[in-house]
Amino acid sequence: MLNKKSVDDINVNGKKVLVRCDFNVPLDADLNITDENRLVAALPTIKKLVADGGKVILCSHLGKPKGEPKPELSLAPVAKRLTELLGQEVKFAADANVVGENAKAAVEAMNNGDIVLLENTRYRIEETKNGEEFSKDLAELADVFVNDAFGTAHRAHCSNVGVTKYIKGECVVGYLMQKEIDFLGNAVNNPVRPFVAILGGAKVSSKIPVIENLLDKVDTLIIGGGMAYTFMAAHGEEVGKSLLEEDYKEYALEMEKKAEEKGVKLLIPIDTVVADDFSNDANFKTVGRGEIPADMEGLDIGAKTSELFSDAIKGAKTVVWNGPMGCFEMPNFAKGTIEIAKALADLEGATTIIGGGDSAAAVNQLGFGDKMTHISTGGGASLEFLEGKDLPGVVAANDK
Q1: Which of 15, 38, 207, 217 is flagged as catalytic?
Q2: 157 to each of 152, 242, 329, how far by Cα in Å?
Q3: How does residue 379 score in pLDDT terms, banded at 50, 70 and 90?
Q4: What is the per-residue pLDDT across 73-82, written as a single tens digit (0 to 9) for each?
Q5: 3-state helix, strand, coil in the chain (%, to 5)
Q6: What is the CB neighbour count within 10 angstroms for residue 5?
């Protein structure tokens, strides 16, 4: 069990608190924020620190400026929107150097309960290299450090790991980070059974460590999405133009054998929706397993598979889902993903966890978000958690 100190365990009254958030939000051409989920997710931690009389200094990266201050990747629009969401001024410290004269002056002038937002941490080239100088610059601004950015927890950068070496006071996690640790970390390591994992998405190769870690923990492992065709091809079945990783067919067979030895039920699709082109307007039909025509490609699981998978989910007490069942962005090939989302939404007394990235987008887009226990905010970070890896950003926080 991961037991980290959180914002509830510290006294921040009158102290300067550096908070690493994940404000890596999408912006349109006019620099308007097009999805503010990450801002909203950060509010509980910010509000708590303000209410407790902390001087709250927020920092985050945005995009990949690679050490060059690019105006279109400035956090200025974030400060403006946070001001509206919080109902109090979030002062923006515009500084190409992130911790320059502006930032230092803004922090100096703070009263208890004030909020300052620093410029994009990736304006500094050292950020992604976890360089000493920038880590020290950040640490000198504050007395206490709070990491609430799960989306970057799998990376060791200055603003989430390096800074913890030099800060004088405590290093703790925020509410969002705490939630991710509680759900993702502990559900996988200490699940209430039956425990079902659903893996979709494009490639087997990107999910190898996840499959291996989960086979030691789950009761049922469901494989859908593009990954499934490699499993089918491993049995000598025709997969047409579907996604296929030739080099991983042997691996797929090994995983099936490992599942059998461990008494884990491993399910792959028994029918497939195939199309003659990768577009929503393509001609499509459903075919049985091993019957994919040579000139067509699989873009979704079929109705029988949806039923098979939904039945396997019934009665589960813990479900982790990472990766859609098909090309859900195209309405004609979203049915499989919708059916799985429905099956999860209908579960009673179960913990349902959606591992970030595409599966989070799918669940939210299809309107099932509020029916899930937890939707992870970090794609890469949640995958590494499911692999059983230690995340540098989590490890760097003080233990209770």
Answers
A1: 38
A2: 8, 38, 33
A3: confident
A4: 999 999 999 9
A5: 40, 20, 40
A6: 17
